[in-house]
Amino acid sequence: MDFIQITPPVAYENAVISCPFKKKSNETRFRVPSRLALSSSKCGQPDAILDVIDNSAMKPEVNFTVCLHKALFLKYNNSNELVEWIEMNRILGAQRFLIYNFTGGSALTPFLQHYVNEGLVELHDWPVGTFWQEIPEYMGQGALINDCIYKAMYKSKYLMQLDVDEVMVPQREDSWEKALAKEKNCQGKNIMLARNSFFLKNYLYKNNNNDMSSKKYKSDKNKNLSGIEFLDLTYRPNFTHPCPIRTKILMRPEFVRSAGVHYVYEHSDGNLNTFCCLSPDDFRLHHYRFWKLSMKDAWLNEVKGEKKYDERWENMVEHPRMMHFKEELVRNVNRIRQIAPSSII
């Protein structure tokens, strides 16, 4: 049994349990059992009996699956953000989304149901029960991430693990597929990491937290913006986190045994924590959030030893890459909003 790492410390453990079985000498491939019994002792009564799902002979149904790597829970009811995130990733090449719901808000329901009916979203319950109060921030995130990997394995050629305020954006091409074909650093690699850049909400809004139910702009001229944050938030610090700090993963899931938020812990062949860093000139993780620290503080907390501090990191630079997708994104988001306009938050 291998425990899945997660930070900060939490009051539960996530684990990947391996049950190896041997292939007979005259067999060309493993004979897969139909059920698996789990027991805490060698000859004890089973604690659980699980059906075995073997997808290893499948051909991938889709090229790109995106996993929302945190469950929807009590505090989250931002249908605007969720719709914009799904539609932006869809433009870039997402053909399937894996989303887990614990107690997401009612404003999300009509949109999630539409996407489920369309076959775009697989919506899974995340029944963490009463012990969620011990982990209100992470909701068993380590287990969820790895459940995503195994659900996508053999069904999808590639899997991305992202939060709802993140998009892995190709910087020179219109899609992930085209960008991967031309990216030079990681040709032929199965585990790739995209480097993080913050696009700051506090540069645009007076609000100093993530409660965006009533947006207050810093300048009146901003009131005429599109209202889609991926398009309106075009400024970032002149700093890109070094790999693998705050990276997100683009993987071939069948080559991964266990992973965390920012990188893979173990490959399916037993290799530990090996990866390839995508060039930020080709792929960049756009992370849209409030950020109160200076880049010097970020350097002291996260980056020290990786890079020498540079005062130019504090400068804000305009990065309007998302405007390339504006027309299609606005059209698609407005179309989806018509499903339940009164539910948009």
Structure report:
- The protein has seven helices and 18 strands.
- The protein is 20% helix and 23% strand.
- 31% of the residues are buried.
- The chain has a single domain, classed as Spore Coat Polysaccharide Biosynthesis Protein SpsA, Chain A (Alpha-Beta Complex), CATH 3.90.550.
- The strands form six sheets. The chain has a seven-stranded mixed β-sheet with strand order 7-6-5-8-13-10-16, with helices on both faces. Strands 9-17-11 form a three-stranded mixed β-sheet.
- With 345 residues, it is of the alpha/beta class.
**Strand segment count:** 18
Number of domains: 1
Estimated structural class? alpha/beta
Roughly how many Å is the radius of gyration?
Answer: 21 Å
Q: Gap between N and C termini, in Å?
A: 43 Å
- Could you say what the CATH topology is called? Spore Coat Polysaccharide Biosynthesis Protein SpsA, Chain A
**What does the oligomeric state look like here?**
single chain
Spans where pLDDT lies below 50 across 5 or more residues: 210-214
Helix percentage: 10-25%
- Give the mean pLDDT: 85
Order of helices and strands: EEEEEHEHEHEEHEEHEEEEEEHEH
Strand content: 15-25%
Q: Please report the number of helical segments.
A: 7
